[in-house]
Amino acid sequence: MTEIIDGNAVASEIRDELTESIERLADAGARPGLATVLMGDDPASQTYVNMKQRDCEEVGIESHHVDVDGDAPPEELFDTIADLNENDDVHGYIVQAPVPDHVDYRNVIRRVDPAKDVDGFHPENVGRLVAGDARFRPCTPHGVQKLLESAGVDTEGKDVTIVGRSDIVGKPLANLLIQKAEDGNATVTVCHSRTDDLAEKTRSADIVVAAAGVPELVDGSMLSEDTVVIDVGVNRVDADNDKGYELVGDVEFESAKAKASAITPVPGGVGPMTRAMLLYNTVKAAGLQEDVDVDL
Ligand code: NDP
């Protein structure tokens, strides 16, 4: 029987664990605060920001939000960032991507106080992660690690193929999984759009993580028996329903499930974990800034 890894259930466990850490902060007179910054009015980004605010309320994190006009000069966003860096009630914040074309996202990230960079995208935090001394693990890769752990998958000595080399998923996940650490010690192959013979790389893996943003790119024919499959992809495809679309992953679920020993669904796999790990990083940031041991 193939195990369907339930991301909603694991995310819920993580939120429960955070409650204890939040109580420790409360005992010390502190309440963790997360801010979201949205420049422009992209509907999908608006939805993500709303969900993050709801998640905060659920666990007792104070949420703050700043809207910046999509046509404003970059300096207006930079001023907002400077204010958040100074605001003691905000322990962590994220600038929702994508930002409008006239703003250089990398220049935005460099301005975020690394101690409040709960996405883990600031170059200082990227460097610390690569050096094996991560302050904040980026939310999606950390969520993938937690899902593997929840399914009882020991990564030590395993061959992992990651499809995708983005700065937010593929690269940080590869860096985490090769660390000399209990939840690392894997041998990792990172594939991308120029990879020759992708199927050969996925077939030789014990664990396949698909993060390419291509609907159903990986199917059962590309997997060996008993592979663990983690599907990070979230893609909208046209569908004959009220919304006119449905969400599918980067994995063709049914054929992959027939080969896999364990697999994540879309939705309900990695997505909820990304949200939970943002809360985790916020509580960790609050612990560091307030000098409280939050045990994370
Ligand atoms: P990016 O577009 O930044 O990166 C995609 C990567 O996949 C690139 O490295 C690209 O290669 C590679 N790629 C594209 N096509 C192929 C192909 N045919 N074969 C092999 N590699 C390919 O995407 P993200 O990393 O931001 O996101 C990936 C997916 O994960 C998306 O569907 C996104 O929506 C989803 N996502 C889901 C999250 C969640 O919480 N569930 C969080 C973040 C992302 P190259 O570098 O050569 O262009």
TrEMBL record:
Tetrahydrofolate dehydrogenase/cyclohydrolase catalytic domain residues: 5-119
Keyword Amino-acid biosynthesis carried by entry: yes
Annotated GO biological process: L-histidine biosynthetic process; methionine biosynthetic process; purine nucleotide biosynthetic process; tetrahydrofolate interconversion
Pathway: One-carbon metabolism; tetrahydrofolate interconversion
Catalytic activity: (6R)-5,10-methenyltetrahydrofolate + H2O = (6R)-10-formyltetrahydrofolate + H(+); (6R)-5,10-methylene-5,6,7,8-tetrahydrofolate + NADP(+) = (6R)-5,10-methenyltetrahydrofolate + NADPH
Keywords, comma-separated and alphabetical: Amino-acid biosynthesis, Histidine biosynthesis, Hydrolase, Methionine biosynthesis, Multifunctional enzyme, NADP, One-carbon metabolism, Oxidoreductase, Purine biosynthesis
InterPro entries: Aminoacid_DH-like_N_sf, NAD(P)-bd_dom_sf, THF_DH/CycHdrlase, THF_DH/CycHdrlase_cat_dom, THF_DH/CycHdrlase_NAD-bd_dom
Its EC number(s): 1.5.1.5, 3.5.4.9
One family name in Pfam for this protein: THF_DHG_CYH_C
GO molecular function: methenyltetrahydrofolate cyclohydrolase activity; methylenetetrahydrofolate dehydrogenase (NADP+) activity
PANTHER family the UniProt entry points to: C-1-TETRAHYDROFOLATE SYNTHASE, CYTOPLASMIC, C-1-TETRAHYDROFOLATE SYNTHASE, CYTOPLASMIC-RELATED
Protein name: Bifunctional protein FolD
Organism: Natrinema pellirubrum (strain DSM 15624 / CIP 106293 / JCM 10476 / NCIMB 786 / 157)
Gene: folD
